[in-house]
Design goal:
The protein is α/β, with parallel strands linked by helices and 167 residues long. It has one domain: Rossmann fold (3-Layer(aba) Sandwich). Helix content is 37%, strand content 16%. It has seven helices and eight strands, in the order E-E-E-H-E-H-E-H-E-H-E-H-E-H-H. It has a six-stranded parallel beta sheet with strand order 5-4-1-6-7-8, with helices on both faces. It has a two-stranded antiparallel sheet with strand order 2-3. Strand 4, helix 2 and strand 5 form a beta-alpha-beta unit.
Length: 167
């Protein structure tokens, strides 16, 4: 297996609980788990890139990605496999050097290209059956953080990254 250099995330059902909220002005709102955000910062500190590929388009997501320093954001991707291949070319890595976390069948064509795959506990069964790892937590409830800790351990970097927090 090639080393993982990029962690690619879906949004609805992975970074969020999958619910889509609208206010009375029709503006979309999303709830993100702060533990997932800190996990993203940890994996970036370890030297991995983080990317997002989503089929929807959301200003709330743009704000969250900017806040976390995620510069590889592909929204409105109707074909996630094509989007992943485009991303790999832009970053200059092989899809086998990527890990992917998705929760629904639209994620599977991209997931199978990657060297490592994750699904949250509440992903659809077909995705969970194909994922290398299924988290105990659900989407939007710390699943991304859990996957990041698994990935850091897989890469042998967990202790090094977490050392600064030990008391």
């Amino acid at each position: 297996m090639k080393p993982i250099k990029v962690f690619v995330l879906d949004v609805d059902g992975v970074l969020t609980d999958g619910k889509i909220y609208f206010n009375d002005r029709g503006e979309e709102m999303k709830a993100f788990d702060s533990k997932d955000g800190h996990g993203i910062k940890l994996i970036m500190r370890a030297g991995l890139k983080v990317a997002i590929i989503t089929g929807r388009t959301s200003k709330a997501l743009e704000h969250r990605a900017g806040e976390l320093g995620i510069t590889h954001l592909i929204q409105g991707a109707k074909d996630k496999r094509a989007a992943l291949l485009e991303l790999a070319g832009r970053i200059g890595c092989d899809p086998g050097e990527m890990a992917y976390m998705g929760d629904d069948v639209v994620d599977m064509p991209a997931m199978v290209l990657c060297g490592l795959s994750f699904a949250p506990a509440d992903a659809v069964e077909m995705v969970k059956s194909q994922a290398d790892h299924v988290t105990e937590r659900g989407g939007g409830r710390g699943a991304v953080r859990e996957a990041i800790e698994i990935l850091l351990k897989h890469l042998g970097m967990y202790d090094q990254i977490m050392e600064r927090y030990r008391v």
